[in-house]
Amino acid sequence: MLSISVVALAWLFSLRTLSTALDPTLEGTWRDWKATHSKEYELEEEESYRRAVWEENLQMIQDHNQEADQGKHSYKLGMNHFGDMTNEEINKKLYCLLPDLDLASQKNVVTFKSSENLQIPSRVDWRAKGFVTEVKDQGECGSCWAFSATGALEGMNFKKTGKLISLSEQNLIDCSKQEGNNGCQGGFTTQAFVTVQQLHGINSEESYPYDGLDHYDCRYEAENSVTACSNMGLIPSGDEKALLQAVATIGPIAVSVDARSSKFHFYKSGIFKNPWSGDLQLTHTMLVVGYNSTRYWIVKNSWSRAWGANGYMFMEQGSNPCGIATLASYPIP
């Protein structure tokens, strides 16, 4: 007798393929994609279902890129490791920002004030100046909040010491629960900074490696602390001008975005413009590492180098795209 999971997969597959069969001309492409991303499926029904989802995503990508070639879009999409997942599944897997944080109750918070007279460079890229570590991968864990926090802390530490040291996201996952973060089930970058304040430091990635699990006790070692922050700064909500000046004068800034769109999930190149319609909902955190004049932000993600432009996105400026300036923060040494 078939198990419930097998029956469910068969039913889903039948629904997805009522009007179309799998394309035999894509067999080689499908095999190559599975090999590239180390995809394996135990059941034939599961692989058939995932193949059907992958083909739908591939068609969406090809249709979008054809329109981009016609000048209808400013960015292109590309197949990546999310290819065999529906948009709903991707959102469920990657949702990593907890709702309803009361920032007004936070202590040791500095509000960044923009200036009408401040002269800043037309272009900034902190990667070129040594502030930014390699793109990382949060994997199956909803820990984006920890990655954006370590990115901002790494930049802060480099600015202070001239040393670029990869910091431990696992340290924050294990030690941030009493500040309201929930490990792989989501959290807030601001609360990660509070954790570093409370611990008086954070360990390196090398000494406290990432495994993407959230059932450990805190294993922070004060004697091996790399850096610390005394408080944090917040960008006034929705103020892109303030965010621009903060990136120019402070360094990489942690930001929260609405990442629910399938176009976001399969972004590959160009200047991304948010296609999502409806109310803004912050679901993901990233790291702004630079900008180009008032055209676009340079944003580091934590979905591996297989996503986007080697792990980065160029996001349009001027309309608070995806809510990028709605909840932006940085540590203060």
From TrEMBL:
Residue span, Peptidase C1A papain C-terminal domain: 120-332
Top-rank taxon: Eukaryota
Signal peptide positions on this chain: 1-21
InterPro entries in the cross-refs: Papain-like_cys_pep_sf (IPR038765), Pept_asp_AS (IPR025661), Pept_cys_AS (IPR000169), Peptidase_C1A (IPR013128), Peptidase_C1A_C (IPR000668), Peptidase_C1A_papain-like (IPR039417), Prot_inhib_I29 (IPR013201)
Pfam families: Inhibitor_I29, Peptidase_C1
Family of the protein in this entry: Belongs to the peptidase C1 family.
UniProt protein name: Procathepsin L-like
Organism per entry: Pantherophis guttatus
Gene coding for it: LOC117657005
